[in-house]
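Dear Dr. H.,

I hope your travels went smoothly. While you were away I took the liberty of generating a structure for the chain from your last submission, since the lab meeting agenda had it listed for discussion. I wanted you to have the full record in hand beforehand rather than looking at slides cold. The sequence, exactly as received, is reproduced here:
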Amino acid sequence: MKPTLGILGGMGPLATVDFMRKVIDLTPATGDQDHIPMVVASIPQVPDRTAAILGSGESPLPAMLEGIRLLNQAAVDAVAIPCNTAHYWFDDLARESRAPILHIVDAACSVLKERTRGVGTVGFLGTTGMVKSGIYQRRIEAGGYACLTPDEADQEKLVMGGIYKIKAGDLAAARDLLEQAADGLRARGAGAIVLGCTEIPIVIADGGDVIDATLALAGACVRRFAAADAAA
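The corresponding predicted structure, in token form, is as follows:
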């Protein structure tokens, strides 16, 4: 059997499906048999990642580790986690995973570097937990960019408000809120916008000045498995 991609998902369910669709869309295939086998541990009951980072909720790590154990049992060859905020616990998850875990932030920053020649300032949209963690900001700034995030009011009302609208299935309202947040960053000088929450690309598409971290991770997975096929 072809090498298998493991997916630790459910955070949220729509984001997991969106990631899988992007892997399928990016895979050069002429029939079913050309696609990457995927084993998915979709666990929507993983506690809220932002609440845990902010100290107001239980740790999601035990539930995520249970998902990693399921993927270990399935003997997957690599793991993707289509939730940016879950990468706060990346090192803990990587220690327990028998297969390498592809890092969504590294994938997004690689695409950012490829597509933004001449851009000096990058805006970041993600959960409050991811903003507070500084994971994206540090990697973006290490690439030679200045990094902007929404102010506290816009982060709560527009970004988190939009993310939770997606989780509730109200995509039209979510799109309006998140586009307002992106426009606010552009007005402050952002020449590119990184969508660093896997919910956001459900309503705002990659392209132009927008970098979709979900699509970047899917591309990294497809390239990895294509290289494995070529070496077989």
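Two observations you may find useful: The chain is about 50% helix and 10% strand. The mean pLDDT is 96.

With kind regards,
E. W.
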